[in-house]
Amino acid sequence: MADEPQFNGQLIPWPEQERESDERYTPRWVFEGLGLTFDTDPASPVAGGDCVPAAVKLTRLENGLAQPWSGLVWLNPPFSQSTAWADRFRQHGRGVFLGPVANGRWWCDLVRVADVVWHCRDFAFTHPTHAGKRSAMPLAMVGLGDEAAAAVRRLGRSGVQDGVLVVPERMARCA
Length: 175
Known about the structure:
The protein is an alpha/beta fold. It has a single domain, classed as Rossmann fold (3-Layer(aba) Sandwich), CATH 3.40.50. It is 22% helix and 21% strand.
């Protein structure tokens, strides 16, 4: 059963989602396990309805990729555009990134600067259009900065989801 979005204790209906969209809503257990409130979610769903605890939510209508990001960032980017989002996240340097494990430069560059990486078994996203559907790719959470890294470690060790915590060596090469 998908988490139903709530506001002030009231259930709110799921927004409609375009059939061809690659927007996926991160399940509530992820945020409960991280135990963080984020300052910015630059890749928030257009119609809302997600459960990301963030003060500022930017959508593709505001072009969250081009807007200023501040503080602790939550990023579950459109997987179809992972490179640009991961590069921007890496440059920002503080937050939690949820994305596909990939065989690409952007992934190696991101892992190279990560404080911690949790390679987790794929999980079902929440949204009526995609509820129960899993990612077609392996997933990982990358923590940048002490607060984010501690939260990713906490979630990885919680036992709610299978995975492996990895602390990358700073000078590791990824060719």
